[in-house]
Amino acid sequence: MPAFRDIVRRIDSIKNTQKITKAMQVVAATRLRRAQAAVQATRPYADKMIEVLQTVSERATEYKHPFLVRREGGRAVMILVTTDKGLCGAINVNNIRAGTRYMNENYTAKQQYVTLGRKGRDFLLRYRREVLAEVSNLPDRPTPGQVLPAVTVALEEYAKGNTDAVILCYAKWISTLRQEPTIRVLIPAEIPKREEQRQGPQADYIYEPEPEAVLDGLLPRYVETQVFQAVLENKASEYSAKMIAMQNATKAAGDLIDSLTLYANKVRQAGITTELMEIVSGAEAVSST
Question: How many whole angstroms separate alpha carbon 131 and alpha carbon 122?
Answer without folding.
Answer: 10
